[in-house]
Amino acid sequence: MKKKIMIVTLCCLALGISACGTNEEKADPFSGEPITAAESPAGNQNQGEGAKNDQGQEEGTKNDQGQDKGTEGNQGQAEGNMAGQKVQEFFANGVEAADLGRDYDADLQASVDAIAASSASVSEELAAVEKIAEQFDKLAKAANTQYEINQTAQWFYVIWDKELNSLWGRISSQADAQTKEQLLSEQRNWVSMKEEVTLENIGSSEENGSMYPTLQYGFWEEITRNRVYVLANALAKIKGESFAMPERNAKYGTYVNNEGTGSVYDSLITRKSWEGEDEALIALYRTGVIEGTFVDQGNGKLAFTSYDEKVQGTILLRGWDGASFEVTAAGDDAIVNVGAKYEFNFAY
Question: Which of 29, 255, 317, 319 could form a disulfide with 300 if both were Cys (CB 3.0 to 4.6 A apart)?
Fold first, then answer.
């Protein structure tokens, strides 16, 4: 039975509209009782002056409160900046300061929150998150046993998962209804297909034994980081900011045809095998799986030959826009025909 892996992103938008003192102009500022038309003009005038004085005091109070809130905001930002430095400071004295068994979850959450609060742009935010992620290279180098490697591998993934959730929370509150619905559908599909895509890429825990956690977290780090950049690009557009997407690897990657759903119909995986060979795995819905090697021809164009040499074709990786596979040669008993072209529009 497949292990169900779900990463649930809960985004709640609370809109609170407060209407306070709607009858204030008609109320005695001292007693709170309504001012009636039967009251004398002189009394009304005196009460009016009292009301102005009270309003002045209230305005002063509001200004003081505003200053207090501003001070609190500055303090909060300062605290956030300090929290954002926790991870960097932990590694500042070298690898010997790193604790392989430490739970970094709270530190990473504080870092991501601080970065999101203090960054002037989405681009600046992502650059800061990359710096945080780099700190864990020192931790990884300090790991010796497989258990330690498994323990430390997760943090490379966790930082990007927390950033993904942070971005989604802001997209959910700032996007218009149509944009939000489109991105929500894509995100749900990404989550729904994650388990199957992981299995196709690294196999099961039974196949990989004690090193499975490292393989799993490594793959999750890769695809979650990719997804973060997709959401960051979407948020930048919502905010009216410029944002440059990084180039995807022109040789290796995972691409899916999901027919706009949360299910994998066809998939294309290009990677380096355990033996160091460039290999491709092409899984076609209700057709079968074709495995083989490829030769990089540059600019995302890969010349594919199946292991049984029955199928040849051209793989074209289009970066964030997906990939395609076109059959150029097929034997008599091949499961595909010459000229057949397959599209994989969802880039993981």
Answer: 317
Q: At what angle do helices 146-174 and 122-142 cross, to 10 degrees?
A: 170
Q: Angle formed by the axes of helices 105-118 and 146-174, to 10°?
A: 30
Percent of the chain scoring above 70 in pLDDT: 72
| Cβ-based neighbours of 66, under 8 Å, separated by 6 or more | none
Length of the chain: 348
- Bridge partners (DSSP) listed for residue 158: none
- In angstroms, rounded to a whole number, what is the distance separating the alpha carbons of residues 276 and 292? 13
SS3 83: helix
User: Please, what is the average pLDDT of the chain?
Assistant: 80
Cα separation, 104 vs 150, whole angstroms: 14
- What is the DSSP secondary structure assignment for residue 247, as one 8-state letter? P
Task: Give mean pLDDT, residues 79-85.
Answer: 48
Structure tokens at 159: 């930082």
Residue 251 near residue 303 (C-beta atoms within 8 A): no
Over residues 230-236, mean pLDDT: 98
| Cα–Cα distance for residue pair 232/24, rounded to 1 Å | 45
Alpha carbon 219 to chain centroid distance? 15
pLDDT in tens, 88-106: 555 554 444 567 888 889 9
Q: Mean pLDDT, to the nearest integer, of 309-315?
A: 98
Token pair listed for 223: 């695809």
Provide the Cα torsion 78, 81, 83, 86; round to 10°. Answer: -130
